[in-house]
Amino acid sequence: MLILAIDTALDACAAGVLNTDSATMIGQQSLPMQRGHAEALVPLIARVIAEADISFEAIDRIAVTTGPGSFTGLRVGLSAARGLALAADRPVVGLTTLAAFAAPLVGETAADPILSAIDARHDQVYFQVSGGDGTTLLRPRVAPIDEAIAAALRFGAPRLVGNAAQILAARWPSDAAPPVSVDAKPAPDIAWVAWLGAAVTPENSPARPYYLRPPDAKPQIPVVQFAASPSA
């Protein structure tokens, strides 16, 4: 199966193509950016499809991050994924950014929980706590930084991952067991977005925005333009 993965929810504009039969990413690119996703995304997808040396019609499924993240950024990725899926008559699935951050750490050790966290500003974070085997210990939520740390410590010293990992580490209580590891990343690895997209089903993972609180503002959403039948 060929999976086209798209991520524009945070500080990157990324796309990649996973071939699940060979278990390889046959094309991928990620551009660090805080703004400008709408202009960058479609040309980036075209380059990734060309790098993969396939036609767009060969794609079997599209996976896209749904948030939490930048209100405008995640809407850009979602509108592009939905539009491309509609044009090519392909299924599209949505994955949370928190799950994508946690995915590389799942299976490394069953003993250490995973605290994936995204900066929500105003001294708050979006976060979830997962077991080392991938089980959900705390569902995604938004909370003040100190409350998020206290919630995670109920399950033991965690591994921190996400764009707020260093923020949490800096506020870690001196009388608590320190984090096992701190992996600060501006955005999820697009390869893991693709692998999660291969593992879920469209019925259980809809491609719609995943909000944990209302956006601070509701800007006009940029229109993402794309060809009806893009090809390599």
Automatic annotation (TrEMBL):
It comes from the Bacteria. Gene3D superfamilies: 3.30.420.40. One of its GO terms (biological process) is tRNA threonylcarbamoyladenosine modification. Signal peptide: none annotated. InterPro entries: ATPase_NBD, Gcp-like_dom, T6A_TsaB. GO terms for cellular component: cytosol. This is tRNA threonylcarbamoyl adenosine modification protein YeaZ. The lineage of its organism: Bacteria, Pseudomonadati, Pseudomonadota, Alphaproteobacteria, Hyphomicrobiales. Residues 34-130 form the Gcp-like domain. It holds the Pfam family TsaD. PANTHER family: TRNA N6-ADENOSINE THREONYLCARBAMOYLTRANSFERASE, TRNA THREONYLCARBAMOYLADENOSINE BIOSYNTHESIS PROTEIN TSAB.
